[in-house]
Amino acid sequence: MKKNAFFMLGLLSLSLTSQAATRAELILKGLVAPVLEISLTPETIASNLDLNSQASNLKVATLTETSNYHTGYKVKAKSSNGGKLVNVSDANSFINYVLIYSGSTVPLSTSPSQIYSTSNLKGTFTKEVKISYNQPTSLSAGSYEDLVQFTIEAN
């Protein structure tokens, strides 16, 4: 029996040696998590606009957009009051205004409108947000406001 065991062990050893490869492969993989972010840094003046006089291209915020999507991204904006600063106590008293994003006028409505799109831009980008309005006349006293919402989406 010992002789058979040695013989079997020899065959097994010969079998393992004859199947040895001449090449070995190592697959390396990694993952970069998707990034799609937007943030807004308001200027102090944004919550303290002088509504007794005209404003022209007054910087009210900086928008920061970050994306690593190879297809790019788009930015949308919407206004709660459709581009009007409305008196919180008297909805019939309001001031129409124009919002400027990165040098271009933003079409403000209560539904999101696309204000920017890129097909392959990746990285972090800052854009200035400015406001313009004419000197208002015959307005009710009180606080005026509007809420503008910006969103970012991958293409």
Largest sheet: 5 strands, antiparallel
Biggest sheet, spatial arrangement of strands: 1-2-9-6-7
Rounded Rg:
32 Å
The H/E string reads: HEEEEEEEEEEE
What global shape is seen? rod-shaped
Helix content: 10-25%
User: Spans with pLDDT under 50 lasting ≥5 residues?
Assistant: none
The class by helix and strand makeup works out as mainly beta
Counting DSSP H or I runs of 4 or more residues, the number of helices is 1
Strand content: 35-45%
Give the number of DSSP strands.
11
Mean pLDDT: 90
- Separation of the first and last Cα atoms: 74 Å
Description:
This protein is mostly beta strands. Helices cover 11% and strands 43% of the residues. It is built from one helix and eleven strands. It has one helix spanning 2-18, and strands at residues 36-42, 55-67, 73-79, 84-87, 94-96, 98-101, 104-106, 113-118, 123-133, 144-145, 148-154. It has a five-stranded antiparallel β-sheet with strand order 1-2-9-6-7, with no helix packed on it. A three-stranded antiparallel β-sheet has the order 8-3-11, with no helix packed on it. Strand 6 and strand 7 (104-106) form a beta hairpin. The protein is rod-shaped. It starts with a helix and ends with a strand.
Secondary-structure blueprint:
Blueprint: H1 2-18, E1 36-42, E2 55-67, E3 73-79, E4 84-87, E5 94-96, E6 98-101, E7 104-106, E8 113-118, E9 123-133, E10 144-145, E11 148-154
Antiparallel strand pairs: 1-2, 2-9, 3-8, 3-11, 4-5, 4-10, 6-7, 6-9
